[in-house]
Amino acid sequence: MTDKNKENFKFVWRITAAHTIAYFCAGIFALYVIDYETWFSNGAISSFMLPTDTPIVALGPALQIIRGLIMALVLLPLRKAFTNEKSGFIKLGFLVLGLSLFSTFAAAMGSLDGFIYTNVPIIEQIMGYPEAFLWTVLFVGILWAFYKFEKKVINITAIVLVVLVVLMSTMGYLAATGIINTPS
Fold it and tell me: Distance between CA atoms of 22 and 94, rounded to whole angstroms?
């Protein structure tokens, strides 16, 4: 494997791991602090968001590996702009917030088009902002740690955390579908 291929592989792994870990942590925050269970079962949001006890929702964190891979492949041509430039990871954070939250290519909740084209009250649209900001800070922070310290322990920790997220998510899905029984 050439040095360029190794660097590309590391970048893809790091983006995928950072996204998966950050998504899980921000999701737990949103579930318990923002109270997504109540929020997703009332008001305008309940008409298009699945309840938090739906089996596929439990599997969502494991499926974020796919989203992380997509993000990594999209960001790969810009890798050096984030990893080699001063304040590159801060630039990545602003890019992600700008394109994935404020200026999406759909009328997504909390985006400019969401405010213009949906019937969802603005207060309900911005309820997800704390989760999005937390995800962005965690995502960028994890990537920064990967590149700043280049330590084997960071890679091992990331592998363990990604495996735990996948296992917990899969077990949640299996329990929610009734495939495995959990004590009540």
Answer: 16
- Cα separation, 177 vs 55, in Å, equals 6
- Which residue's structure tokens are 């999701």? 27
Tokens standing for residue 92:
């990545």
Give pLDDT tens digits for 39-92.
Answer: 888 877 888 888 888 999 999 999 999 999 999 999 999 999 999 999 999 999
Residue 131 CB: number of other CB atoms within 10 A?
Answer: 20
CA–CA separation, 82 and 88 (whole Å): 4
